[in-house]
Amino acid sequence: MTRKPLTSLRLFGRLKWLDGRPLLDTIEPYRRKIFKDALDTYKDGAPVYNQVLAGRGKKNFKSCDLVLAAIYCTVVRRSVQGNDALILASDEAQAGDDLSLARKLVECSPALSAEFEVLSKELRLKDGSGSIKILPAGDASGLHGKQFSFLGLDEIHTHDDWRVLEALQPDPTRRDALTWITSYDSITDEPGTPLHDLKAIGFAGTDQKMLFSWYSADRCTDPDFADLDPEARANPSMGSWPEGRAYLDQQRRRLPANIFKRLHLNLPGSASSFVDMAAWDDCTDEELTRVIADRGLPIFIGVDASTKHDSTALAAVTWDWREQKVRLVTHKVFQPSPDEPLDFAATVEATLLDWRSRFRIQKVLYDPYQLQSMQEVARAGLEVEELPQTPANLTAIGQNLFDLIHGRNFRSYPDAGLRLAVSHAIALETARGWRIAKERASHKIDFVVALAMAAFAAVRGQGEIPVSGDTWWRLAQRSRERPYQRTDPSALYGERKWLQMQRQRGFA
Q: What is the pTM (predicted TM-score) of this model?
C-alpha cells in the first residue's frame, strides 16, 4: 500500500510567515483550495495536475504561492529521478525578489532551515538530493533539454513567444513533474503568445491535466468571487491589504489607464494616451507666455535629440516655489532630415549657450545615445548630466511627468504644437516598466520626452535651487491664478532661517 505524502497545508502549518505568524494563518481560503487541488490531489498514485496557470491582479500573492509550491515539491515530492526545482522570473529584479522571499521563508522557519542550505543563488537540500534555483528568464538559454521536478514561471506576461517553454517541456517519464505559471494578463494578447494560448486552453477546459485559476475583472473561475464587483474579482487578496480598496484608488490616480487595467484588473493591456488631455488643458494657463529672459530665474533643461529622423527638442522648466509646481519656461524644437542632419553645434549647443545668457541654468539632462558629447557645453560652465534612456529611467521620468500633470502640479503656456505632441504620446508598457512612446512614426513626441527629463530634474533638484528674494517675487508676479503682492520671503521662513538659506546659496 502506497503511503500518501505530507499534504501542502500540513507542511505550511509547520512554517512561519516573515513576521513570525504561523504561515497558514496568512493564507486565505481561496489560496488554500488552489494548493490543495494542485499539490494534494492524486489519482492512481500520481498527481492529477502537471500544470498550474494562476492569474490574478498585482499584489495578490502570486509569486509567494509559486515559491511555496516549489518548496513543497522539493521537500516532499522526493524522487529517484531528482529533486531539482527551477523558477524563472520575468527579469533580474523579479528573480531577486523571488530569491529573497525564498531565503526569508527558510530562515524564519526551523522546519525549512533543517532541510535547506542557503547559497547565493539557490537553496540546496542539505542531503544533496536537489535544489531550488531562481533565475531571470533571459538566463535560461543554456537549460534546453534539462529536466526538473518543479518548473515555475513567474509573470509570463513578458514572454512574446514559446521559446523558453519549448526548451523546458517536462520529462514525459516523470509523473510527478509540475509546471506552475503565474501572471497578470499580457501586454500583447494575441495568438502565438504563451499566456494568450494557455488562457484559451484553460477557459475551453480541454486540458484535464491543467489546473486553471483565473481572477480578472471580466472573468473568474472561482464561483465564490464570480459575482463580485470587477475590482474584487481581480483581487481576491484585497482583504489582506492594510488600506484595502483605497490602494486601488491610489493606483488608478497614479497609473495610465491601460497599465492600471492590466496590473490591477488583470485585463489585457494595450497602448493608451499618456495623459488625459483634459488634465493637460487644466495645466495650461491662457495668461502665461514664454519667458524671454530672466537672469535670476533658475531653470532645468531636458534635451531629446535625433540627428536624422525624429525632431530634436529642448524644454526648460522651473520650480515655482510659491505654487509648489513645475512650470514650463520655454522650449525649442528642431527637425532634421536624412539630407540635412542635425548640426549639434549650431542648434542644441547654440540654444543652450543662448539660454545660459538669459537664465540661470541649474542642470541639463540629455540622452548620450545621440548626443555623444556635451564637452563644449560643459566647458562653458553648464552642469550637464547623462540620462540614458534605460527602462528604469524612462519609467521614472514618465511616471513623474504623469503625476505632475494628473495632479495639476504642472503649468504651461498655451501652444498648439505642444498640445499636439502631448496628444500623440502614449504609455507603452514593456517587460521592465513603461515609457512614453508614439503609435505612428510620423508623430512627433520628442518635446514630451524632453519635458519629462526637465521636469524630473526640477522635482529632484527643487531643494538645491538658489533663489534670491527678487527672483522669488518675480516668480510670484508671473502667476495669474490670483493677484500677488510682493512678499518678504523672510516672513515665510522667519528672518534667521531665511538669512541662513541666503548665506548657503551665496546671496548674503
A: 0.66
Q: Are 359 and 321 in contact (CB under 8 A)?
A: no
Residue 34 neighbours by CB under 8 Å, 6+ apart: 52, 54, 65, 211, 213
Phi first, then psi: give them for residue 484, nearest 5 degrees: -120, 145
Helix (H) or strand (E) holding 361: strand 360-366
- List the alpha helices (DSSP H) in 109-146: 110-113
> How far is residue 180's CA from residue 152's CA, in Å, rounded to a whole number?
5
pLDDT of residue 490: 40
Sorted by sequence, the CB contacts under 8 Å of residue 86 that are 6+ apart come out as 132, 133, 134, 135, 143, 148, 150, 151, 152, 168
In angstroms, the CA 89 to CA 482 distance is 53
The secondary element (H helix, E strand) that includes residue 301 is strand 298-304
Task: Note whether 391 and 432 are within 8 A (CB).
Answer: yes
Residue 55 main-chain phi, psi, to 5 deg: -125, 135
Query: What is the Cα–Cα distance from 256 to 30, expressed in whole angstroms?
Result: 30
Q: Could you give the CA distance from residue 426 to residue 435 in angstroms, rounded to a whole number?
A: 8
Burial class (CB in 10 A: 0-12, 13-18, 19+), 462: middle
Q: Which of 216, 214, 246 is nearest to 230 (CA)?
A: 216
User: Which candidate, 230, 221, 227, 280, places its Cα nearest to that of 260?
Assistant: 230
pLDDT tens digit sequence for 443-489:
788 899 999 999 999 999 876 655 444 444 454 454 444 333 333 44
Element (H, E) at 313: strand 312-320
- Per-residue H/E/C for 416-471: HHHHHHHHHEEEEEECCEEEEEECCCCCCCHHHHHHHHHHHHHHHCHHHCCCCHHH
CA distances, 174 to each of 150, 151, 333 (Å): 11, 13, 63
Range scoring the smallest mean pLDDT among 58-67, 217-226, 270-279 = 270-279
Report in angstroms the alpha-carbon separations of 194 from 164, 191, 296, 503: 10, 8, 57, 62
**What pLDDT digit, counting tens, does each position of 78-107 carry?**
888 888 999 988 777 788 888 899 999 999
Question: 238 is written with which cell numbers?
Answer: 484585497
Our CA dihedral for 76, 79, 81, 87, rounded to 10 degrees, sits at: -10
Q: Which tens digit of pLDDT belongs to each residue from 57-85?
A: 999 999 999 999 999 999 998 888 888 99
Which CA distances in Å does 345 have to 376, 446, 453? 9, 19, 21
Q: What's the grid cell of residue 27?
A: 493564507
Asked if 18 contacts 68 with a C-beta cutoff of 8 angstroms, the reply is: no
